[in-house]
Structure formats: structure tokens, C-alpha cells
Amino acid sequence: MATRAKALYIVLLGGPGAGKGTQAELLSKALGIPQVSTGDLFRENLKDETELGLLAKGYMERGELVPDSITIAMVRERLARPDCEAGAILDGFPRTVAQAEALEALLTELGSRLKVVPYIKVSEEVLLSRLAGRWTCRNCGAMYHQLFSPPRQPGVCDKCGGELYQRADDTPETQRHRIQVYFEQTAPLIDYYREKGLLVEVDGQRSISEVQAELLRIIADDRRR
Ligand code: ADP
Ligand code: AMP
């Protein structure tokens, strides 16, 4: 594989509902590199009823993590594609220390490394309120919140006119379980990346545009180094 020494790989850390997907989509547009969301990749596979989708289904419905081996193989395949040669915004991956180690090994193989890991910090109470009001476009994946960023017309996507839906794993019970899984398995990555000198904390309890501006500033600072 060609070397990717100048590529820009960024991991967005944060709990479920912190705004990773919202910010990754905006960053992807601003920086011209793809958003790689493992949640979206699993949901596409589920919709297409692929073998991978069927493997992931039960874990997703229960709000548990899909096993590392399956997730890592999917990301390896995705990052190897040519559209990730200039970099990628990783959203929802890694979620365990084993995934973080696999990512490091994979980027080394590709002749690159992680540049920065913004941690979008949001309280548990706000995470729950964000998940409870989340609506997604079935057609283009655009994200809305019924209170914080509502569509112009309820149930209809502003961007493409598609139908908005609430994710099957956004029921109150599954939301609480996903947050618990996050604290047990993913939150340790905060210290993991802090020790590597890659972590930058971002206050996620501000408007979408304020968080976006800060993320762009952090990435620009990092690029100058
Ligand atoms: P994640 O990908 O981290 O699970 P999302 O990007 O899906 O989170 O955001 C969860 C919900 O919160 C969505 O409905 C989104 O519109 C809303 N949201 C995201 N960022 C903010 C913000 N800064 N302020 C208010 N609502 C937000
Ligand atoms: P998300 O869209 O990021 O909220 O992810 C939705 C669901 O997909 C999660 O609750 C997990 O079941 C699964 N998933 C997404 N990313 C990962 C990952 N990195 N490791 C394991 N499971 C994942």
C-alpha cells in the first residue's frame, strides 16, 4: 500500500449522543476527507442484510459492542480504500483499548499515525437528552434534534426531503445501557490517548457551530506543529 505520511487521521471521542456524528459530518465537508462511522457502516450492513449486518444485529439492538475482531476487520477494509488515502474522521471507533491498539498498528502499516484525538465532553444528563430527541434521515443520514436542531417540517429532512426516523437503539432502556457500556469500555480511552499526548478536551455542551469552530481550530493548530 502507498505511504500516507501526510494523511490526516482524526478520532472523535465522546459518549453516545455527544455529537460525534454531527461534528464528523461537518469536519468531513470542511476538510475534504471522509467520515468513517462504524455505527453507520453496521447500519448499512444491517439494511442490506449482509452477513456482517446479521452478525452485528443482536449486539446493536441490545446496545452492546460488536466484538472487536468483527469491528476491526470492517475498519481495516474501509481505511484501505483509496478515498481514505488523504485521511479520515473516525467517529465511533475505537471504542475499546484493543480497537485503539489495532488502529495504531493499522495506521503504522499504512505509513501514517493519528494526529489528534478531540474528546467531546458532555455530561451524562445531556447525553440522554440528546439521544432522546435524535432524528435521522433515512435517505441521506442527516441528523436532527427535535429541540436543539429541529427540521423545518417535522419528520422531513431539510436537505433531501427524506423521511426522518428514530433509531431502534434510541429507546430509553437501550440508551441507558449504551451509556453504561461507554463508561465501562470506551471511557478508558480518554486516559489512553491523554498518555500518548494526543487528547484535546472540547466542551461539547455548546452550540453545534461553536463546537465545530473549536474542532477546526484544534486541527489547524495540530497541522502547524
Ligand atoms: P453521537 O454521534 O456522538 O452519538 P450525534 O451526532 O448523533 O451524537 O448527536 C446526538 C443528537 O444531539 C442529535 O440529535 C444531534 O442533532 C444533537 N446534537 C449534536 N451536537 C449538539 C450540540 N452541540 N447541541 C445540541 N444538540 C446537539
Ligand atoms: P453508534 O452509531 O456509534 O451509536 O453505534 C451504534 C451501535 O453500533 C453501537 O451501540 C454498537 O452496537 C455498534 N458499534 C458501533 N461502533 C462500534 C465499535 N467501534 N465497536 C463495537 N461496536 C460498535
CATH class of the domain at 8-123 and 197-223: Alpha Beta
Which kinds of small molecule does this entry bind, naming each only once?
Answer: adenosine-5'-diphosphate, adenosine monophosphate
- Class by SSE composition: alpha/beta
Give the SSE order as H and E letters. Answer: EHEHHHEHEHEEEHHEH
What would you call the quaternary organization? single chain
**Count the helices. How many?**
9
Percent of residues in helices: 40-55%
Q: Strand tally, please?
A: 8
Flag low-confidence runs. none
The biggest beta sheet is recorded as: 5 strands, parallel
Basic shape: globular
What would you note in describing this structure?
By secondary structure, the chain is of the alpha/beta class. The protein has a domain at 8-123 and 197-223: Rossmann fold (3-Layer(aba) Sandwich), CATH 3.40.50.300. It has 9 helices and 8 strands. The strands form 2 sheets. The chain has a 5-stranded parallel sheet with strand order 2-3-1-4-8, sandwiched between helices. Strand 5 and strand 6 (143-145) form a beta hairpin. The protein is globular, with a radius of gyration of 17 Å. The mean pLDDT is 95. Bound molecules: adenosine-5'-diphosphate and adenosine monophosphate. Residues 16, 38-39, 42, 59-60, 63-66, 71, 92-93, 95, 99, 169, 178 line the site of adenosine monophosphate.
Question: What's the arrangement of secondary structure elements?
Answer:
Blueprint: E1 8-12, H1 20-31, E2 35-37, H2 38-47, H3 51-62, H4 68-79, E3 87-91, H5 97-109, E4 114-121, H6 124-132, E5 134-137, E6 143-145, E7 164-165, H7 172-186, H8 188-195, E8 199-203, H9 208-224
Parallel strand pairs: 1-3, 1-4, 2-3, 4-8
Antiparallel strand pairs: 5-6, 5-7
Helix pairs in contact: 1-9, 2-3, 4-5, 6-7
